Amino acid sequence: MIASIFVNPKQFGPNEDFSKYPRTFESDSEKLQRAGVDSLFAPEPAEIYPDGFATYVDVDGLNERLEGRSRPGHFRGVSTVVMKLLQIVQPNFAYFGRKDAQQSRLITQMARDLNLDTEIVVCPPVREPDGLALSSRNIYLGEDERKAATVLYRALDAARSELAAGVRDALQLQAVLHRTLNAERHARVDYAEIVDAKSFESMNRVNKPCYVLLAVFIGKTRLIDNLYVEPKSSDSEELVFHF
Predict the structure, then answer these.
(1) Where does the pLDDT of residue 175 fall: very low under 50, low under 70, confident under 90, or very high at 90 and above?
(2) Is the predicted pLDDT of residue 236 greater than 90, yes or no?
């Protein structure tokens, strides 16, 4: 089993937090060792992007919406570095977290379109007991902001309750999301949308697999989270929810 640690400069915009992004190499290495990782690949940026580097990977359509709209160039950097890492390591399987739902969907598409031998495996988010999804950026949160950050999970759970009660109208669900998020004074919504799980295009009604997606600023810290929703079966009105 091989793990990589690499803070990728190509996926940060000019006004984003690349310079101060949490770098916890020693503690991360210890955790990976305890988890049974055999090798750690931790290249320097110059090794991945040597002088004169000029080749990038774009996944059209998926790279332009939501996170791509809010963070121009982000997915170009993500798809390029993932392609390079997969080509260097050539693993049988590569594991990505579903918290970054659009990213994992984009990488799955890239692997399919470019006939990569690596199988992309999407793993569920890991959450704190109060529902907050684990993220490197959680370290930025002050005490009050950390408490406020649970509003993302609470908003998703409010949408789940509406869906479980039979609501299928996306605008009605979005209103529930905004109402919950706007009630938290530390929160500022970037987007709160219901999207098709494959295309990531907006939906009018929940009638097939979809994501409830959130991007919210808690103070100055931007956090994302999602709820994956799918019909229990092809002929069922009952839904299954994945936090």
Answers:
(1) very high
(2) no
Q: Does domain 136-242 have CATH number 3.30.1300.10?
A: yes
Residue among 185, 224, 229, 184 at smallest CA distance from 203: 229
CA nearest neighbour of 176 among 186, 138, 165? 165
Q: What is the 8-class DSSP label of residue 128?
A: -
Give the DSSP letter of residue 117: S
Are 3 and 37 in contact by the 8 Å Cβ rule? The answer is: yes
Q: 12: which DSSP letter?
A: S
How do residues 57-111 score in pLDDT, each as one tens digit? 999 999 989 999 999 999 999 999 999 999 999 999 999 999 999 999 999 999 9
- Domain ranges in the chain are 2-123, 136-242
CATH architecture label of 2-123: 3-Layer(aba) Sandwich (3.40)
User: ∠102-135-202 over CA atoms, to 5°?
Assistant: 25
pTM: 0.92
Pairing between β-strand 221-231 and β-strand 239-242 as defined by DSSP bridges: antiparallel
CA angle, residues 6, 9, 10, in degrees to nearest 5: 115
User: Phi, psi at residue 172, to the nearest 5°?
Assistant: -65, -40
| Cβ partners under 8 Å of residue 59, min gap 6 | 75, 79, 106, 109, 110, 113
Q: Which of 136, 172, 137, 176 is nearest to 154 (CA)?
A: 176
For 85, residues 6+ apart whose C-beta sits below 8 A from its C-beta are 4, 6, 41
